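EI: anyone free to look at a 408-residue chain?
SC: sure, send it
EI:
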Amino acid sequence: MTTDSTATVFGTEQIRRARMAVAAVFTVHGAVTGSFATRVPWIQDHASVSAGQLGLALAFPAIGASLSMPLASRVSHRFGARTALRGLLALWTLALVLPSLAPNLLTLCAALFLYGASAGMSDVAMNALGVEVENRLDKSIMSGLHGMWSVGALLGSAAGTVAAHLGTDARLHHVVAALALTVLGLAACQGVLDLRSEPDEEPPPRFSLPPRSALVIGAVGFCAVFAEGASLDWSAVYLKDVLGGSAGVAAASTTAFALTMAVARIAGDRVVDRFGAVRTVRSGGVLATLGGLLVVLAPNVPLALCGFGLLGLGVAVVVPLAFAAAGRAGDNPSRAIAGVATITYTSGLVAPSAIGTLAEATSLLVSFGLVTVLAFGLVLGAGVLRAGDRTVAGAGARTAPVKSPAEG
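SC: here you go
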């Protein structure tokens, strides 16, 4: 697709509408995750699985996502970006129903595998379209899009909390939520860019290894997601067991961390446009490292809470910028984004168990020492995100837009 035809087909107003549409898609995607997370205890009881068995089952979403992500570019190539996103997002919203229907461990693992597979493919498709809109607007929007995902997750979890408090059967709750989110998702998809492949283009392979650029960029994302996952899953335990905080304060730390992440991501685009991706991530790495040190050295709960807040603030925009950099790093944005997404999903899978294993062998202090070291890795590795830096790539985005997943 040439620059002139791109300008003709997609005017400024259409691009702006596409930005709002993609933001709505991110919100719907996040709401599914929030809706599921709040009903995990009900699902555990319904399937009659132990804590250990539940931990095993909860690994399957990441496995399903990692295996399915490379297929997203092929689906977009075959059907076009808008139709592909519409179908993949609908699969994801409807897959919300599956885990609550599982009567035992085997069916729960299978349900969560399909749940994760649909999540991963829709994730790649919407991030690729987000990068495409960002390129054509010539300003950063990826951090805000991921902020809208966090808003959706918070809204979904709030609704799930109410449903759980009322004692609503999770099957009924998830059927109603899935139908509502499917309708909202399909409506949102109407406004995204309808990008299509040229008739003579070769389809991307069904499965392929991520390009080298994605591996390097993904390593930075790995550090950020590891710190995020460790803080979300272990901050409450740390405050309670290490510093003797109350159960209420400890539980509130998780919500506070999630809110910090959401606010930082929504505000992050202005920071990125002003300072560029590299300087933003490097500065975030400094904040996250200081936060990790404060957690490890804090003698009381308030200081540790401040440390977790700095960790959340520091890593908040890294993954959105990693996706943006991947989308500009090669000839096939969706393949690169899928590679980065696979690495970050793996980090999210590994982090909670790695922290627990290390804590059992040593202590939680040592575990968060590891988090601090990985946070410092953001300072050292920020330069690899230069491909996604608006101060570098922005000037050329209008004259040489990258191909979308549907464009091959």
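EI: The radius of gyration is 20 Å.
SC: 👍
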